[in-house]
């Protein structure tokens, strides 16, 4: 049978993994290999994708991809799992020790209490007994030691990076939060530089952000690697470690979340693990800053004295006569001169050549005879081993990982985090509750943001700003300041800038709730729940995260698409993200709704947001039938346990957004406001004007008036404000305030509706366009500007003319 035929709570042993290319390699790297036990936890509310338990972690997979994996169902596997005193539920599948995973813990099939043969692991700040050797030629003291911080997605890299460097990078409980490299100096060690890299499951990159990590380690050649491993999910995390040990680079293994492992009854024999891996192993808790100083000491030592990993051959003794072992060693002998010339570590190059990695093979510059010999070696290995090359190498690594785990790890009982997550998921990802709960959560967030919390603090801030402006105006009057100067200060600077700053509470409130959703791990569930729905419009469930981030800011939303492995899906998601109304547009909506639609704010605001979503769906259907024909990328994603949001992380995120908003307010927006005031106060001969219709600004903006007239926006003042919105959306409000003054109520209500729609859909700000250019190139960025403006004009035309019939 195939994996898609498995029923909920049933377990099976994987026989064969079908498919080909990068996706199949990704499956193997995630631990889906022949001989492994897998358990079906649930299906998404719409019946697809499915949630699996494998190697101790939850993995999502679509039925279409599961159909390529053949299995043998294990009978009698519906018993309770994860009981106290037994091995955890991720090995207790009812397999009765028949698979390689469960052989590690055959005691769990008896009623006997499991006793640990291992010594208690060292406490935080205590390393093992790894012998540090001082080499004859250490690096000079003034050389900058560069470190790559490498690990799986969502294992705590960015948290550790912040502890090492004192930075305040955003962290989140969702795979792929870090999508670009970040650099920082280790505190107290000026001659160091540590780079936080995007999460990567193996050195066979499946998505663009994983390629960033591999290329950095391979090409930048750091003097040391800090490999962070989630100690609560060690088998899956050590797969990357196996490959990093082949890189001929000094390495320290940081066992993160050791506090959680210990609290749940687990332990690790650090000395035994060090002897099996040949590198220093340091237990830490990055979130609590425990063991980090010890980690720094080890990392600096191995880098300074160039201590390479002591063990690099992980071929298993039960390798069917050593087929993989012989193949790897033969390839190493054949390519050693090529690897040296290409400056690629020999052991790493050999495994990649056997695996068939085209990028590495091309760099080695092998001739046809050598490639033919390698092909014969690989074919012979596959014949003897009974597995294809990729599966054989993956199985070799996981076999050694299981050996390490069996010798050094006492596995914990089922964790509190997992129990809590399973209870929460019964509602949050339940068949009948998931989508209603999601809608309810998002509706509650918008209600609290725009009607309760955000609105309350916004009114307070507005009152304070108005009082300050009145006080300043009276001071200027008493000082007999020139009328033009007074107008510049009050109308050109204070009124425009104050109207934008007053919306800061609304933006902070929205980001506060979104950060809670991300930190808790709920965002990953949203992707799981919405995958099938998004697939109908040509996207993957992974796209939902970028689209949701678009409600906050388009720039990070565009960057987050790097976690999407398919170039087709990635481009589509980037093109659709501007339809999600970013927080910078909130001042526009809030300003006009409070002025023209009092008492209907929630209704109008909800309609605006839904219009953006509907337009994104329509555009995605058009794109999938024209430019981006084809199927959405497979949905393969790890589901993290729910965690309590970190107050520190939430505060840091809010501070970053506040700082970013205020920087724009006192730079771009302030400059735009001042320039607009000057242009609307003087004519072409720089004489003050009594009527702004005679101003320089009126003449320049008049070019757009004929174009905007059919959509009810044929006023040069509105055209001007929309132009400045390209620099920063918030400036639309400040410019409108400057140009209209007290005459704002003179704008027809139907024109206000058209303006709200146009503001929702027209070109994103210059920062967002720059991020699109960085991700897709100049032509795509220009296309987005033109495409968004065209769509905005068409939809505004329809809205204006329909409502004009009734208003």
What report would you give on this structure?
- With 807 residues, the chain is α/β, with parallel strands linked by helices.
- It folds into four domains: 3-115, Ferrous iron transport protein A (FeoA) (SH3 type barrels, Roll), CATH 2.30.30; 145-304, Rossmann fold, CATH 3.40.50.300; 323-410, Helix Hairpins (Orthogonal Bundle); 436-633 and 646-804, no CATH class.
- Helices cover 53% and strands 8% of the residues.
- It is built from 31 helices and 14 strands.
- A six-stranded antiparallel sheet has the order 5-1-2-3-4-14. The protein has a six-stranded mixed sheet with strand order 7-8-6-9-10-12, sandwiched between helices.
- A hairpin with a 6-residue loop joins β2 and β3 (50-54).
- It is elongated and about 90 Å long.
- Mean pLDDT is 80; it is low at 77-126 and 170-179.
Which key terms come to mind for this protein?
Rossmann fold; 6-stranded mixed sheet; 14 strands; single chain; Helix Hairpins; 8% strand; 807 residues; 6-stranded antiparallel sheet; SH3 type barrels; alpha/beta
């Amino acid at each position: 049978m195939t994996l898609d035929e498995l029923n909920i709570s049933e377990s099976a042993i994987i026989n064969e993994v079908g498919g080909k290319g990068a996706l199949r390699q990704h499956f193997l790297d995630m631990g889906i290999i022949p001989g492994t036990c897998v358990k079906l936890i649930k299906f998404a509310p719409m019946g697809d994708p499915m949630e699996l338990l494998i190697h101790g972690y939850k993995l999502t997979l679509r039925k279409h991809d599961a159909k390529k994996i053949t299995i043998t169902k294990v009978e009698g596997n519906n018993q309770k799992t994860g009981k106290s005193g037994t091995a955890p539920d991720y090995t207790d599948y009812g397999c009765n020790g028949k698979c390689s995973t469960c052989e590690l813990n055959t005691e769990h099939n008896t009623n006997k209490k499991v006793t640990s043969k291992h010594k208690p692991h060292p406490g935080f700040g205590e390393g093992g007994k790894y012998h540090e050797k001082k080499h004859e030629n250490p690096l000079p003291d003034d050389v900058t030691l560069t470190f790559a911080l490498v690990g799986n997605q969502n294992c705590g890299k960015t948290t550790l990076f912040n502890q090492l460097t004192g930075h305040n990078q955003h962290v989140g409980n969702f795979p792929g939060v870090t999508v670009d490299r970040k650099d920082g100096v280790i505190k107290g060690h000026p001659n160091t530089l540590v780079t936080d890299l995007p999460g990567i499951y193996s050195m066979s990159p499946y998505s663009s952000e994983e390629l960033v990590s591999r290329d950095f380690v391979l090409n930048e050649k750091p003097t040391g690697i800090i490999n962070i491993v989630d100690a609560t999910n060690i088998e899956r995390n050590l797969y990357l470690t196996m490959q990093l040990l082949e890189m001929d680079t000094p390495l320290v293994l940081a066992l993160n979340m050791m506090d959680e492992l210990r609290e749940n009854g687990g332990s690790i024999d650090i000395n035994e693990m060090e002897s099996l891996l040949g590198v220093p192993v340091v237990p830490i808790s990055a979130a609590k800053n425990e063991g980090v100083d010890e980690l720094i000491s080890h990392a600096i030592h191995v880098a300074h004295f160039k201590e390479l990993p002591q063990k690099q051959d992980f071929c298993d003794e039960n390798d069917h006569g050593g087929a993989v072992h012989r193949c790897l060693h033969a390839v190493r002998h054949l390519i050693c001169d090529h690897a040296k010339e290409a400056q690629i570590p020999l052991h790493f190059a050999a495994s990649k050549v056997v695996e068939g990695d085209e990028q590495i093979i091309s760099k080695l510059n092998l001739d046809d005879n050598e490639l033919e010999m390698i092909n014969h070696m690989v074919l012979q290995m596959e014949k003897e081993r009974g597995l294809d090359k990729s599966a054989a190498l993956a199985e070799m690594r996981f076999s050694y990982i299981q050996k390490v785990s069996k010798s050094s790890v006492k596995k914990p009982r089922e964790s509190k985090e997992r129990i809590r997550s399973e209870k929460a998921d019964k509602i949050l990802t339940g068949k009948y509750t998931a989508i209603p709960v999601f809608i309810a959560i998002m509706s509650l967030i918008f209600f609290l943001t725009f009607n309760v919390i955000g609105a309350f603090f916004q009114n307070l801030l507005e009152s304070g700003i108005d009082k300050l402006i009145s006080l300043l105006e009276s001071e200027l009057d008493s000082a007999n300041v020139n009328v033009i100067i007074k107008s510049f200060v009050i109308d050109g600077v204070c009124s425009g800038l104050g109207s934008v700053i007053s919306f800061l509470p609304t933006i902070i409130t929205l980001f506060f709730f979104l950060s809670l959703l991300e930190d808790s791990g709920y965002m990953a569930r949203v992707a799981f729940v919405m995958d099938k729905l998004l697939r109908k419009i040509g996207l993957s469930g992974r796209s939902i995260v970028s689209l949701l981030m678009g409600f906050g800011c388009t720039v990070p939303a565009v960057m987050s698409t790097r976690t999407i492995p398919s170039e087709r899906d990635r481009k589509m998601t980037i093109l659709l993200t501007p339809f999600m109304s970013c927080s910078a547009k909130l001042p526009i909506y809030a300003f006009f709704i409070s002025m023209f639609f009092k008492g209907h704010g929630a209704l109008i605001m909800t309609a605006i947001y839904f219009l953006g979503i509907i337009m994104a769906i329509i555009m995605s259907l058009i794109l999938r039938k024209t430019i981006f024909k084809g199927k959405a990328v497979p949905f393969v994603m790890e589901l993290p346990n729910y965690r309590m949001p970190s107050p520190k992380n939430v505060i840091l995120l809010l501070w970053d957004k506040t700082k970013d908003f205020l920087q724009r307010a006192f730079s771009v927006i302030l400059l735009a406001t001042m320039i607009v005031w000057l242009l609307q106060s003087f004519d072409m001969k720089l004489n003050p004007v009594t009527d702004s219709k005679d101003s320089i600004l009126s003449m320049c903006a008049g070019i757009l008036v004929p174009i905007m007239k059919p959509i009810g926006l044929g006023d040069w003042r509105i055209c001007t404000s929309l132009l400045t919105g390209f620099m920063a959306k918030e400036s639309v409000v400040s410019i409108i305030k400057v140009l209209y003054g007290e005459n704002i109520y003179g704008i027809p209500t139907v024109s206000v509706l058209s303006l709200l729609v146009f503001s929702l859909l027209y070109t994103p700000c210059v920062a967002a366009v720059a991020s699109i250019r960085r991700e897709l190139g100049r032509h795509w960025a220009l296309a987005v500007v033109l495409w968004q403006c065209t769509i905005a004009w068409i939809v505004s035309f329809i809205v204006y003319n329909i409502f004009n019939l009734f208003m």
